[in-house]
Specification:
The structure holds two protein chains of two kinds. Chain A is mainly β. Chain A is 0% helix and 51% strand. Chain B is an all-beta fold. Classes of the chains: A mainly beta, B mainly beta.
Chain lengths: 114, 113
């Protein structure tokens, strides 16, 4: 089954404790992205990757890091989480640029930073 | 990316046909219209994409008039499970530099029994 898998689904952590949210896709897609969704602000892109070892900033990259060492994986790293990073996070993948082709989204990771 | 305007919310009843209209007055010649659906606490899901006239799939129909300044997503015989937020997006699908999807506020559709 074609899917984007994020882990964990839920995470509560404390300020400053490094964490990684994993994302994996099994569709051999080139493009992968991370979004965060907040009430009243909608979905905003954090980082994206057009291929292995190619990543770039989205609209809200501050406080986040990503890496794309393999085509299928695109982890999101919060080196020193802060409460303003409490949000619902989605990973997405697509064969081509997201507006060109159907984008597939993961089930989401709800992160709470206390 | 062209700006889109959709109703903030809509209500309907099970078994009814629901039409959600999206305005995109400054749509460009090469732009396509795409709709996504998002259930609470889930990731958005692609529904349908079109350029002109009518497109139909197993989930919905998309009607686009000749001037393409608006489009209508039609959901036939809705059920409670169609309660979701629906996003209308407009962009050039041939633009390989379009690295992200810009979601607007969407339309929150509530279906009642």
């Amino acid at each position: 089954e074609a899917q984007v898998t994020q882990n964990p689904r839920y995470l509560i952590t404390v300020t400053g404790k490094k964490l990684t949210v994993t994302c994996s896709q099994n569709m051999n897609h080139e493009y992968m992205s991370w979004y965060r969704q907040d009430p009243g602000l909608g979905l905003r892109q954090i980082y994206y990757s057009m291929n292995v070892e190619v990543t770039d900033k989205g609209d809200v990259p501050e406080g986040y890091k990503v890496s794309r060492k393999e085509k299928r994986n695109f982890p999101l790293i919060l080196e020193s989480p802060s409460p303003n990073q409490t949000s619902l996070y989605f990973c997405a993948s697509s064969l081509g640029a997201p507006m060109n082709t159907e984008a597939f989204f993961g089930q989401g990771t709800r992160l709470t930073v206390v | 990316l062209a700006k889109t305007t959709q109703p903030i919310s809509m209500d309907s009843y099970e078994g009814q046909e629901v039409n959600i209209t999206c305005s995109h007055n400054n749509i460009a010649t090469n732009d396509y219209i795409t709709w996504y659906q998002q259930f609470p606490s889930q990731g958005p899901r692609f529904i349908i994409q079109g350029y002109k006239t009518k497109v139909t799939n197993e989930v919905a129909s998309l009607f686009i008039p000749a001037d393409r300044k608006s489009s209508t997503l039609s959901l036939p015989r809705v059920s409670l499970s169609d309660t979701a937020v629906y996003y209308c997006l407009v962009g050039d699908i041939r633009d390989s530099s379009a690295s992200k999807i810009i979601f607007g506020s969407g339309t929150r559709l509530s279906i009642r029994p």
